[in-house]
Amino acid sequence: MQSSSRVSSSAASRRGSRRSVAANWLDRQAPYVFVLPAVLLILGFSIFPLVTSAYLSLMRFALGEGGYELKFVGMRNYVRLFSGSQQFHFVGVFRPPGVISIAVMAAAALAIGWWLVRYLRGGQRSVIGGIGRLIAAASLLAVVWLAANTTGDGGALGSLMVTLFYVVFGVALQFLLGLGLAYLCTLPLKGGRFFRILFFLPLMVTPVGIAYMFRMMADTAVGPLAPLWAWLGLGQIAWAADPWLARIVVVIGDTWQWVPFMFLVLLAALEGTSRDQIEAAQLDGASSWRIFRDVIWPSIAPVAASAVLIRLIEAFKVVDLPNVLTNGGPGIATESMTLHAFIEWRTLNLGSASAVAYMLFFVSTIACVSFFQLVVRRARGRQS
Amino acid sequence: MKCIKRASVAVAFAVAGFMAAGHALAAGEFQGVTVNVMTFVGPQIAEPLQRRAPEFEKLTGAKINILTVPFSDLYQKLLTDWASGTNSVNAAVFAPQWMVDYTKGGFLEDLSARVARDPALQEDDVMPFFRDFSQRFNGKTYLIALDGDFQMVYYRTDILKQLGKQPPKTWDEYLDIAKAANGKVFGGDGKPVAGSCISKKRNAQAYWAIISIAGGYIQSKGTAQGAFFDPRDFKPLVNNDAFKAALNVYKQSTQYGPPNEINLDVGDTRSAFISGHCALTLDWGDIGVLAIDPKQSKVIDKVGAVMLPGSTKVLNRDTGKLVACDKNTCPYAVDGVNHAPFAAFGGWSGGINAKASPKVKDAAYAFLSYMSQPAQANVDVTIGATGFNPYRRSQFTDMSIWKKSGMSDAAAASYLGAIKASLQSPNMVIDLRIPQNQRYEQVVLDTAVARFLAGELDADATMKAIQTGWDEITDDAGKDAQLKAYKASIGAH
Coiled-coil ranges per the record (chain B) (predicted)? Predict the structure, then answer.
């Protein structure tokens, strides 16, 4: 009897311990189980379109009887972008390189080579860092080579270079103007509060609205500013017919909208700068420029770098302004990669649209990751 | 026996009466039914639909929602909605050329039976060309025509008189007038006029203009000869001296155009012309009626219209060179000039989603039929803002409707005369109506010509770009099938 009760109690304890093992295991899994629905949802919304568009970029979409059909075409949609019928559209029209082009390419190669050598000789080198820098260097060299061979007479930029032009010049302009305005607003000037609100307003306007507004304002013949243009002697200027003028108008519109973002972020950073350090520098007799360079800039650099990164990611996707302002014209001169993909998509050329979208994904990822690793982290590191 | 006869006659009358009554609009017939109709933002085309929708609702109870999207998005929006099974669009008013792609997917309702038993529509009154091109495909009626489209040249009668010139018969004469008028002041608001205003904006409705110019150089032996492809071997007719001549005319006209002409949409050039700032323009029928609108027009009774100018030299398809017109090369020439009027676009037409519910289909059909019935259509074509141009016989014969709209006899004769001459021409160019025509024209042709105007490409490179792009689409779609569809569309054997 005793033995049987001992047996049953040990069996019960084994069962109990087994239950507790199971319960413990479940306890350990609980966080994953709770998070799983959210993860699946996010995967569904972000990874699924990514995978689907990768699949579509290898296909040819065609309408068939009662529906549609997809035919596998391999890398044909990508090949078309680089060397086929869409080469002019994506990478541009090449011209024989001139002396300036060769000089620019050589200077870029030397500078990038020196930068890589300096890294390899430095004490902080790593395999991952080296590979990352090699990718960044190769991409930069490719961009310089493309710019040198497609800019100028006989050449034409494709949507890749036009996008990079919007990104590099637009973001740089927005950063400089935003920083300047933010700095002005930190000075004890009259009406500072009014200007803070005024500078912020363009961010609230929808990009398409801004594009229409700029289209009307830039109409030198019948727009609301036509008398002003005529008075300035610019009444007959055909900005929409000149590729560079048209691109600059797009950059101006984009800048008008996005300066407030830079202004807002940089103003917050500037106001967070230690007053004690500035006052100490002033007492030491430092000039305004020295104070800005050695006290203010190091303090706002991490925020500034992050703000530029956010703008970079956004700027790669520019589509509304060129679409409304010029419909991508003259020719294809103002067409960004997103607009290029959109135009392909609009004609149900889904494979080609996905291929362009994927190229945008690669280019923006390389640019933004490189910027993060080489600029943002360094700025943060310097501060810490 | 008599009784049976009488009874059968009575039954026949009753059935006929029922059939007729079935399509006369009954008050409250579609109470509670909502129809979503998609078209482009306009304001033209959307305007008459939006204006007449409440009228129609009062008559039948059906609520008609007019959804609008930019022209360049319309083709794809409709396809996406229908192909993905969303089916939020029950009916649409769009370019009849797209019918080819839409019927292939089985998205459009066959309206043949409905049209056959709809006396109020007065189908016989619709001009045969529009019945065939805008309404039917493969022998079935899928669309209801609401508009008739031809491109023509409009000129300012007062300016030509002052310059001592005649309306242009050839493109050389067109350029000559444009050059003479450009930059000069001819009264009005005292501003200098542009010699020629042609909408050249990319991704808009500009790409038909180059075909309008090229037609007279390329096609001379009748419609079945084709102006886009050679029906013998489906070789694109875009890489030869004829197309090059057209490209040069197109580019030269830009020299006499307003600044930023290559960024002007049709709405912009129309407004420039009717506000008195252009001597010549190339456009659809809209200008004729916009020019008599007292609210907008500064050129009332100062506008004349002619069929598209032509050429005294035409393409030899074997050599790719231009040869002089004679009886053999230009059998339809008038005074030695070969004209090839271009039925660009065909005319806005309405179709119904095959997947809509039966009641919605009935209401949608009733609305489209209502829009096209002479009582409405013969008023709408005389209003500039509608964008609808004449397409019914009665609109050409009943001059009272034009008089009522404020058009003078001379203006009406010139305007309707130009359309009629285009419509009756045996050498009319029919717009491309083969699978993927939108890609051939709206993507490849439009992009290449835009790059040419922007100076990115010279004429030879432009022609090569169009040919390569078209060949690529043909390879994708299958050359034999495309050739067969093309031959059927132009009536070639």
Answer: none
